[in-house]
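Journal club prep — side note

Before the paper discussion, L.F. wants everyone to see what a predicted structure for a comparable chain looks like in token form. Sequence:
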Amino acid sequence: MSPLPTFSTMTPEAGLKKALSMGRPDIIEEIRSSGLKGRGGAGFPTGMKWNFAAAARADEKFVICNADEGEPGTFKDRVILQEHADLVFEGMTLAGKAIGAKEGILFLRGEYTYLRPHLDAVLARRREQRLLGRNILGTDLEFEIRIFMGAGAYICGEETALIEALEGFRGEPRNRPPFPVNTGFLGRPSIVNNVETLASAACILQKGAAWWKARGTEKSTGFKLFSVSGDCGKPGVYEFPMGITVAQLLEEVGGEGAKAVQVGGASGQCVPASQFERAIAFEDIPTGGSIIVLGPQRDMLDMLHNFMDFFVDESCGQCTPCRIGNTKLLEGIELLKAGRCSMAYLQELCALGETMQIASKCGLGQSSPSAFLSVVKHFREEIMGRTPSHV
């Protein structure tokens, strides 16, 4: 059985064929009406993003699929690309029609090089079937897709750093504004959407906005794919409606008895057992899809050390709050593990983390302290209870 049941029930090319019979504003309105929000974690309304790019005046526009799935604990986009690449490319194509773009670029994570032959074969078949190129399915629509390989930098998951890499530069976030929908790749209007977002858009065009809104919550419509790992009996990729509680999810994946769940990967928040009735939705606990189950035996400081070491290594170093702040938080965790961190210094580290959330230039620095702050809030006694080390 496919871990992606809804995607598996879609009729091939039905969404694209429907889009070809619609005007550009009607396509955007269907996506806007569905309430679809970015599935990469940021949760920006997809229809609004497409509308901004469609309204921008330019002789050239681009559709960019962000397949740089680098968040620790996230692997659902990889499964989509393996099993339902056609839906992703279909979503890119109808997005191209919606905003007036003729070219799409799939930015593929460097660690997913093994997927390249499969994706190239799917693109070749779509060209043969007149689903790409000029005069798509006998219409005047023209759209082509190419693949660009990333080089393994976590920061390129941020859309402007991704665009910098596409242009041949070092992956570093840009100052915003201007935003990519106005000034993106090569200075042209560009939309950057996650793999799951584009596949979902293809489903919405096929089944309709009302079908999508029938699941989820009022503010978080539709279903969501979750990458579940850690201390549970049934890890893997799951499809659940938005708004599912942490407790309900744990029951489905065999994670009962967990003491905490890290929602959103290393950059997400650590939810303690006392809050397992909270909903996984944009209005409560937002996530790009990573769910890491932490059993009773897990050392919270070991988890934090692993995460912060990752962020120190992956920071592009462009802004001081992220470059220095992550290093200081890592040093603080090492002091906590040695039992040599005072309560006063821990409070200073928390203040530093809160400053990073406000002052960092991009999402990496803004979200990297999240796990630290939530663990300090909910597991203070555990992390402060170490025997002092004299080493």
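L.F.'s comment for the group: The longest helix spans residues 320-337. Keep this in mind when we get to the figures.
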